[in-house]
Design brief:
This protein has three domains: 2-39; 55-242, Penicillin-binding protein 2a (Domain 2) (Alpha-Beta Complex); 246-289 and 309-614, Beta-lactamase, CATH 3.40.710. The protein is 36% helix and 22% strand. The protein starts with a helix and ends with a helix.
Length: 615
């Protein structure tokens, strides 16, 4: 009976089942072993050879810049760079690297030692804008150049007839001092150095990404660490949309060629800057990618200081354009009315000194005093106003303070507040100082952007608006435009006072005997004021400030040319040319006739449209 049971248990069917099970198990083990050795073998071999985890920086593209018409003026182009990771570097590779880069060994040694001090493990850029031939050599000898990696970054491209040098600014490698202030940067990174590239650095830069990879003993990548789960994706910088018209900007720059000076044109209704030019300037394309030391030093050592942004960083006496401020103060305080008369006999006697005027104007009212730029009238008016009123109105119109324009390093100018003046003089501020204040001389210094903002406040009827060059920002993350808020304040000036000053400025340009008749434009009521600002260091500086049209003004402007002498001779014609381009952009096709070296434009075909603008 036991034998029969044993025979049944070891029957042929059971033996077959057992054999199938054994074969399946062996097959599974064989397949797994083949998978491990054949399919995954290379991966595990690379993993076993991996010596370290390395960070590869993913560079973002810097934000683009557009003008007021949506025209692209600054964008980016891919460029090769080299990074250096100190802990992977081998000193025996130095001669090979020198030969491939074809640079001075001392210079390369200095760079490498500098970057070693920053971090042993983080890659830093040490060569920019590297040509393709050099990159090919680096790749070919990569196994002998541990710690040297090729990066793709971007460099700026400029696409405009206007240079926009000081407005845009440039980018350059971050300095050690800047590294202390911006700890999220590394040596070799670029940062905005001037203009809006500097002012909006945080928005334009974007955020860099990081890719983590395992490297072998030769510094070569063997696999992506943790399947990329710890990688960080780079994010491109935000785009900026300017209020500046690049065509008007190009014209402003052309008008300043060969001169040292500045032009600032503003929309008086909203503070948007329409054009802002400083001369001399330089070519920003030379600052894209690797900057030539020879070119950089030539700009740095130029006696005319092309790096200086004269629109916001230079200070000058305002001269006679200041007289509108004194006129407003006198009208507001009731010291004078529209019909009040003061006498000019070629100047004004104060104490034992006779302060000269430009002419013998006799009895004149405030409008005529502005028209003829009568110093004697404003000497007397400033004395009648007294120090407190003169200083308070100067401060009310933002002199001695920054405008807050979105450009870096703006200067305050010089116009002290009342408490500071009283500390110096007590309650006895000298009369001669007040008389100088009355004509925009003495201890008054202003920037061109301050003057343009001041004229814009008169033009719009008494609202001071913060000037600005960026009108909106495009956020790539939310895919939306973001408007920027700018400050403004009502100066609480009577409309009658403003109208009297506007009429005086209109007469300067349009009435016989005005000091700026060469700024007159048929069909457009230009209101302006010439200035000749005394300069103790040489020939006087020239100014012309203006707005147009008189009613519902669309543009306010300050033109300043260093050592130009009388502002009506040099600066007023510049302003006229820019106004013609602003109101008649089609005029390039209009025939011109030259009269006394001034171009008179036949704009009759545009008169109807101009009247619509004026009215």
């Amino acid at each position: 009976m036991d034998n029969n049971y044993s025979d049944k248990f070891i029957s042929k069917s059971r033996i077959r089942i057992f054999k199938v099970i054994v074969i399946l198990i062996c097959s599974l083990y064989t397949l797994k072993l083949a998978h491990l050795q054949i399919v995954k073998g290379l991966i595990y071999k690379e993993a076993s050879e991996a010596q370290a985890i390395k960070q590869i920086i993913q560079e973002p593209f810097r934000g683009n810049i557009f003008d007021s018409k949506g025209k692209l003026i600054v964008h980016n182009k891919s460029s090769f760079a080299l990074s250096f990771t100190p802990n992977l570097w081998r000193e025996e590779s130095f001669p090979l690297l020198v030969s491939l880069l074809d640079i001075d060994s001392t210079e390369l040694r200095k760079s490498i030692e500098k970057y070693k001090e920053f971090s042993q493990f983080l890659p830093v850029k040490f060569q920019k804008d590297v040509d393709l031939e050099t990159i090919s050599g680096i790749e070919e000898y990569s196994e002998y150049l541990r710690g040297i990696d090729v990066l793709i970054e971007s460099k700026r491209l400029y696409q405009s007839e206007a240079y926009m040098t000081h407005l845009l600014g440039y980018t350059k490698e971050i300095s050690p001092k800047e590294l202390e202030l911006h700890q999220y940067y590394r040596p070799g990174d670029v940062i905005g150095k001037q203009g809006i590239e500097k002012e909006y650095e945080g928005l334009l830069k974007g955020s860099e990404g990081v890719k983590f990879v395992a490297v072998n003993k030769f510094g070569q990548q063997v696999f992506q660490y943790d399947n990329g789960k710890k990688d960080k994706i780079s994010k491109n910088g935000f785009d900026l949309y300017l209020s500046v018209d690049s065509d008007l900007q190009a014209k402003a720059e052309k008008l300043l060629e060969g001169k040292r000076g500045a032009i600032v044109a503003i929309n008086p209704s909203n503070g948007q800057v329409l054009a802002i030019a400083s001369s001399p300037n330089y070519d920003l394309t030379e600052f894209s990618g690797k900057i030539s030391a020879e070119y950089y030093n030539s700009i740095l050592n130029d006696k005319d200081k092309p790096f200086l942004d004269r629109t916001v960083n230079s200070e000058y006496p305002p001269g006679s354009s200041w007289k509108m401020l004194i006129a407003l103060a006198g009208l507001e305080e009731g010291i004078i009315t529209k019909s009040s008369q003061l006498f000019c006999k070629g100047g004004y006697q104060y104490g034992n000194r006779f302060f000269k005027c430009l002419g013998h104007h006799g009895s004149i009212n405030v409008e005529t005093a502005i028209k003829k730029s009568c110093n004697a009238f404003f000497y007397q008016l400033s004395l009648k106003l007294g120090a407190e009123n003169v200083i308070n109105y100067g401060r009310k119109l933002n002199f001695g303070q920054i405008t807050g324009i979105d450009l870096p390093s703006e200067k305050f100018g010089n116009f002290q507040d009342l408490s500071t003046m009283k500390k110096r003089f007590g309650n006895n501020i000298p009369g001669w100082m007040l008389m100088n204040f009355g004509i925009g001389q003495g201890e008054i210094l202003v920037t061109p952007v301050q003057m343009a903002s001041y004229i814009a406040a008169i033009a719009n009827g008494g609202t001071w608006i913060q000037p600005h060059v960026v009108s909106k920002i495009y956020n790539h993350e939310t895919r939306t435009f973001q408007n920027i808020e700018y400050s403004q304040r009502n100066l609480n000036l009577k409309s009658n006072s403003i109208e009297v000053v506007k009429e005086g400025m209109w007469q300067v340009v349009n009435s016989p005997g005005g000091t700026a008749s060469n700024a007159r434009i048929n069909g457009i009521d230009v209101c302006g004021k010439t200035s000749t600002a005394q300069n103790p260091h040489g020939k006087d500086h020239g100014w012309f400030t203006c707005f147009a049209p008189k009613e519902n003004p669309k543009i306010a402007m300050a033109v300043m040319v260093e050592n130009a002498g009388w502002g009506g001779r040099v600066c007023a014609p510049i302003a006229k040319e820019l106004l013609l381009d602003f109101f008649y952009p089609e005029r390039n096709n209009i025939p011109t006739t030259k009269i006394d070296s001034l171009e008179i434009y036949e704009v009759n075909s545009f008169q109807d449209s101009t009247r619509n603008i004026v009215n």
